[in-house]
Write a structure and sequence with these properties.
Elements (H helix, E strand, L loop, with lengths): L1 E5 L4 H12 L3 E6 L13 E5 L5 H8 L4 E4 L11 H16 L3 E7 L22 H15 L4 E7 L1 E3 L8 E4 L9 E3 H14 L5 E6 L1
């Protein structure tokens, strides 16, 4: 299986790369600084330096892949449009290349509360996360409007830690119980497991340790 990973140089992306290689997948790691990132040495790893807003760069990274994983990050003050515009580029190029399956990381604000309202738009949602939450929301809406088979993960705090397999998930809402944090190893493990299990097709999913 060939996997293309966007946001590969971030904390989540690097963990996905490592775990995917350990599972024997062929991995394409995409980013601006892939050649200086601390990736493991592996013949199954292909580093693709490119710009997220460049159609041809993104198309070349996607073409021939079996699945796309997105761990796009960036600034949280609303000035960085990588999450929204980057997702739009990925969707456009997946359509062009004939790819269908994508699993993407977002923020928990895209999930629903008990009243069916977005957490992002609920009273008491932390103000410091509103701007980045709107970026995640735009990325989610772009996926929802696409023809792709997508899974969009609403994460709370991503913390250091390896994969334990001890986490809870829930479709569309926050899982219960919820500690509002997820170890990076477990987030990557869930994403890779979802490739085979397909438990959350065209759905949002909350996750927590």
């Amino acid at each position: 299986m060939i996997i293309t990973i966007f946001g590969a140089t971030g904390i989540v992306g690097r963990e996905i790369v490592t775990q995917a290689l350990n599972k024997g997948y062929q991995v394409r790691a995409f980013g601006r600084t892939v050649f200086t990132a601390p990736f493991p040495k592996n013949d199954q790893l292909k580093l693709i330096q490119g710009a997220l807003f460049d159609d041809s760069d993104v198309f070349n990274a996607i073409k021939g892949s079996d699945i796309v994983l997105s761990a796009i990050g960036g600034a949280v003050d609303g000035t960085d449009l990588s999450r929204s515009k980057g997702m739009e580029t990925i969707i456009r190029q997946m359509d062009k290349a004939g790819n269908k399956r994508i699993i993407a990381v977002g923020g928990m604000g895209v999930l629903d509360n008990n009243e069916g309202q977005l957490l992002l738009h609920s009273a008491g949602y932390p103000s410091q996360y509103l701007a980045v939450g709107e970026e995640h929301l735009k990325a989610y809406k772009a996926l929802k409007a696409s023809n792709l088979v997508w899974t969009f993960i609403g994460c709370a705090d991503i913390i250091p830690g390896g994969s334990t397999g001890l986490f809870n998930t829930s479709a569309e809402t926050l899982p219960q119980p919820n500690k509002y944090k997820i170890k990076v190893g477990d987030l990557a493990l869930f994403m890779l497991n979802e490739i085979d299990k397909n438990n959350y097709l065209c759905a949002r999913v909350g996750i927590s340790n």
